Amino acid sequence: MILKVSLHLANGVPLRSLFKPYLEVEDVSENTSLIRARDSAVFSNWIPFRRQIEQVGLVQQRNLVIDLSGVQLVDDSVLGKLDEMRDSFELEGLGFDVRGLDSLIPMSDNVLATRKRTLGQMKRLTIMTPSAVAEHLIDELVERGVTEYTITECKGGGRQRAEGPLLQRTRSVRLEVLVPTTKAAALIEFLRSEILPEFMATVCLETVEVLRSTDFE
User: Fold this and answer.
1) Which of 27, 30, 112, 173 is such that its CA lies 20 to 30 A from the CA of 165?
2) pLDDT tens-digit map of 117-143
3) d(CA 74, CA 21)
4) What is the DSSP string of 117-137?
5) CATH architecture of residue range(s) 120-216
C-alpha cells in the first residue's frame, strides 16, 4: 500500500485527495444525477466515493453519470470497482455511465489500466515535396492508416549535390501528419523504399506531445 501511495504521489496526485475524494453532485434531469470527481479517484479514497455513488444513485433510485475528466489520476482498482457498480445499477434498472476517460492517458494496454492526466507522445512526420507529388502521397498515407494531415503551399529550391548548381525555385508543399509511435516506423520505411527513389522529397520525423493522443488512433 505504501508503495502504491508513493507511486500515485509521484504521478501528480495531490496529497489532500489521497484519502478524501473531491466530488461535486448535480441533478441534470428529473431522474439523472452527475458526480464530478476532482484531483484523484484511487484505491485509498474509494470507500467514501462509493458511498456517494450508492447514496445518490441506488438509495435515491436515480441514473448516474460519473465524470472523471477533472482528475489527475484514476487507478485500475477504481476503474474495476466502477465496472462492478455498473452491474449493480443495471440490476436495479438504472443507468450508470462513466465519462471523461478519453481525456486521460492509459498507462498500459489493459482496458482497465490506470489513467493519468499527461501529454501523450506522438510522432510528427513532415514531408517537403513538389505539389505534383502531394496528392499521390496523401492517398498512399491515408491507405496506410493516417487519419489527419495538414498541407501548406510553399516555394523552395536547393541543390541535388553539394557542389551542384542551385536548382530553380519550384512550387512545393509542406505535408504534416501526426501518427502514433507504433505506426511511424512503417511510414518511414514506405517513404524510404517507395517514394524517395522516385520523387524529390525531404522527410523529417520528430517526437511531439499532444493533449489527446487518442484522437489519432
Assistant:
1) 173
2) 877 788 999 999 988 888 889 999 999
3) 11
4) --PEEEEEEEEEEEHHHHHHH
5) 2-Layer Sandwich (3.30)
Q: How many angstroms separate the CA atoms of 165 and 4, rounded? A: 63
Domain boundaries, the chain: 2-116, 120-216
Q: Give me the pLDDT at residue 69, please.
A: 92
Q: What angle do CA 214, 12, 41 make, to 5 degrees?
A: 75
Task: Tell me which of 1.10.540.10, 3.30.750.24, 3.30.2000.10, 3.40.50.1240 is the CATH number of domain 2-116.
Answer: 3.30.750.24
- Distances in Å between the Cα of 174 and the Cα atoms of 19, 110, 137, 178 are 51, 37, 12, 13
Structural element, H or E, at residue 184: helix 181-190
Lowest mean pLDDT among 8-12, 98-102, 125-129: 8-12
Tell me the Cα Rg of the chain: 25
Distances (CA, A) of 124 to 16, 87, 174, 175, 188: 38, 41, 12, 10, 11
Can you give the pTM of this predicted structure? Answer: 0.59
